[in-house]
Design goal:
By secondary structure, the chain is an alpha+beta fold. The chain is 26% helix and 30% strand. It binds flavin-adenine dinucleotide.
Length: 317
């Protein structure tokens, strides 16, 4: 394993925030992971992937854990198991080259395999939950391995059991995805082109992708807003958990933010990305406080104009 003390986290988060971590440990096998967890039992641990959905708000006084395990193997012709540290897009590129399809709509989403299950990443109508068969994990306390079926992961919109009931309790060690033989290179290429035209390129412009999640509103609220804003985009969604029988509509947060006039606006070094207002970027040496303040102003103005709460998708650390 690799152990570094008191290091800058700049290379480990796509927002480009330069804070420090007391300890950074990268492991290369399950035995090493078990050893680290045993030695550092009770200490504050944050397992990261590519750091593409994190906003470090200050120095991290605990241990940053990262996986150096990055292999994938076919279990059979319909399932592939990938280790947590493999970049999701590298996996999709390999599968596409080998003429396997099913995951191509998730092309170019930054991040690693482990986080794809935690975050239930999604794009262009496909979510990780549609292609995940099961998830292998290690219990941080007991150090035992546990397999979660797709159902047990309780996937939702950018959500899973690993973000709530079991937050910080399990480390995703590998993910089994469903694939099938088929040509996907054309779709993959189209998606890459579309994403590159709209989203900031990792490594060039600091960001964590969509800063906010799209809100869901009850039918009554949607109708009230539609009377005032007839052009408001809205999409009926399946009933929310615990609200069976009620109709809900998803309103694109990007539209709400744009209507409030935020497109391209800056605060300190942070900016609402002109090509996609759902994204906040580190335009010019932004501090965490610049980003936090801009995000807070954006959500306050959406609340004031539309009476809708929008919540960050990004994990504040
Ligand atoms: C330019 C850009 C575009 C993006 N576009 C999209 C998009 O289209 N769709 C989308 O869904 N997301 C998008 N994102 C967000 C991001 O890509 C996803 O959230 C991704 O899953 C984050 O992966 P990561 O490896 O960087 O995880 P990190 O950001 O490092 O971690 C995210 C969370 O997962 C936890 N975690 C990471 N690895 C593990 C593990 N092995 N076990 C347990 N917990 C773990 C972390 O503790 C943290 O809570 C985008 C981000 C950027 C920068």
């Amino acid at each position: 394993m690799t152990i570094k003390e008191n290091i800058s986290l700049l290379p480990y988060n796509t927002f480009g925030i330069d804070v420090k971590a007391r300890l950074f440990i990268e492991y290369y096998s399950l035995d090493e992971l078990r050893q680290v967890l045993k030695e550092h039992k009770g200490e504050q641990i944050l397992h990261i992937g590519q750091g593409s959905n994190l906003l470090f708000t200050r120095d991290f006084n605990g241990i940053i854990l990262h996986s150096g395990m990055a292999r994938a193997r076919f279990i059979d012709d319909e399932t592939v198991e990938a280790q947590n540290g493999l970049r999701l897009d590298d996996l999709i590129a390999q599968l596409t080259d080998m003429a396997y399809c099913g995951m191509e709509k998730l092309s170019l989403i930054p991040g690693e395999v482990g986080a794809s299950a935690v975050q239930n990443v999604g794009a262009y109508g496909v979510e990780a939950k549609d292609v995940i068969e099961r998830v292998y994990t290690m219990d941080v306390e007991t150090l035992e391995e546990r397999v979660f079926t797709n159902e047990e992961c309780k996937f939702g919109y950018r959500d899973s059991i690993f973000k709530h009931e079991l937050k910080g309790k399990y480390i995703v060690t590998s993910v089994v995805y469903k694939v099938k033989p088929g040509e996907a290179s054309k779709t993959r290429e189209e998606i890459i082109q579309t994403r590159m035209a709209k989203l900031p390129t990792v490594g060039e412009v600091g960001s964590a992708g969509s800063f906010f999640m799209n809100p869901f509103v009850p039918e009554e609220k949607a109708n009230e807003l539609l009377a005032q804003y007839p052009d408001m985009p809205h999409f009926e969604t399946p009933s929310l958990e615990g609200r069976v029988g009620e109709r809900f509509f998803k309103i694109p947060a990007a539209w709400l933010i744009e209507q409030c006039g935020w497109k391209g606006k800056t605060l300190g070094g942070a900016q609402v990305w002109p090509k996609q207002p759902l994204v906040i970027v580190n335009a010019n040496n932004a501090t965490p406080d610049d980003i936090i303040a801009l995000a807070a102003q954006v959500s306050t103005s959406v609340k004031e104009k539309f009476g809708i709460d929008i919540h960050p998708e990004v994990n504040y650390i």
